[in-house]
Design goal:
Layout: E1 2-10, E2 23-30, E3 33-38, H1 41-50, E4 55-59, E5 63-67, E6 69-74, H2 90-104, H3 107-123, E7 126-133, H4 136-146, E8 149-156, H5 161-176, E9 182-188, H6 196-209, E10 212-217, H7 221-231, H8 235-241, E11 249-253, H9 259-268, E12 271-274, H10 276-281, H11 289-295, E13 298-301, H12 314-329, H13 337-343, H14 346-351, E14 370-374, H15 386-393, E15 399-404, E16 407-411, E17 414-415, H16 420-436
Parallel strand pairs: 1-4, 1-5, 6-7, 7-8, 8-9, 9-10, 10-11, 11-12, 12-13
Antiparallel strand pairs: 1-2, 2-3, 5-14, 14-15, 15-16, 16-17
Helix pairs in contact: 3-4, 3-16, 4-5, 5-6, 12-13, 12-15, 13-15
The chain binds zinc ion.
Zinc ion binds at residues 73, 75, 216, 252, 304-305.
Length: 438
Amino acid sequence: MTLLFTNATILPMRDSDAVPRTFTGWVGIEGNRLTLVSDSREDADAFRAAHRADLREIDCRGKLVMPGLINTHCHAGMTLQRSYADDITLMEWLNDYIWPFESRQTPDEVALGMTLGIVEMLLGGVTSFVDMYYFEDRCVEVAERLGIRAVLGCNYFDSNIEEVFPQVERAVGRASTGSGRVRIAVAPHSPYTVSPENLMRGKALAERLDLGLMTHIAETRDEIRIVRERFGRTPVEHLDALGLLGPRTIGAHCVHVTDSDIATLVARGVTVSHNPQSNMKISSGVAPIQKMLQAGACVTVATDGTCSNNDLDLWEELRTASFLQKSATGDPTVLPAWEALRMATANGARAMGYAEGELGVLREGALADLIVVDLQKPHLQPIHDVVSNLVYCGKASDVETVVVDGRIVVENRRIAGIDLPELYARVAGAVRRITTAD
Ligand SMILES: [Zn+2]
């Protein structure tokens, strides 16, 4: 089916726009590509005439059409642990709650958690996400079925590397027979939980299978201390010395980085995934995002998992990213709304390995991932500056319709092919089993 979104306020987020501008017009989709992004009535009429047989028009009066949001760091399978253990210290949280919970989860239950996480993200306008968890080979099918675009990072520690590496191969095999929307990555947990030898093995595997890499970097002060005691370096220096930093690497957090670390991240082309709410909730600190942007780093934004957030609402995360940076630097001019929005669109697309202009932007020829935001809401009126309204006032529930790869996956806030009450019942059943199992 060919789609034509009409009478829309269009926010294309083109890279050439320093400050994003909107216009009223039409967006047309053929197959999985945008083939019309225009303010010309003649262009729209020509598009209609060319596709009369299979055209579906969607009236977007009072609504905004923009690129879908991209969440660059998430543990979607952990959704079953949302609000399971909060307001305690990190070690108590891990030892007494999270690790025992995870040790009892089956691959099917992780896939169920992933389902809930993807449903939450799609309904909130996230069209692409980068995941990092276990049993990603099992989760390829979940992402394919729900229609989201994803990079699934197979997470490993020293303790489970032999189990996870075969999962990487299986995941690559499954993704290669799918839609092309799901990509696989190798995801060593962090420089303090994975030995240099096993970090290098991950890098070698990624090179052999032509995959990207992702890892947590410099998240807490404890990590800095441990890596310095063991290796005499900062986490960034350590990973760089091992050759793990490159344009296909996503570094989640990067909270405690030196000026020299920032220069290294920029020189290697690493994408930084900023997780402000997680950093606040776990008391990790404030990442120097303004400094990184000034140095030319590619910075993106993400929710992290639902244990340290506790939701997957990227709109909130955008707002927090901007406010936190203003608060931490004492400068209200830093990280303006449009820059935060770029982090969640064009920069996120780069993190996922897409060429500039291919994703995260509304432009003819780009992949057709877009969202329709209903502006007819009290908190989005009046509209002096629509980008400020989106970033500083927008909510996941403002997203009305979601298109990924040319396919409508959410329409009028209903997600295709999912019975939500049935999903919630299955989630409750899995949680009951896991928390009462011996
Ligand atoms: Zn994480």
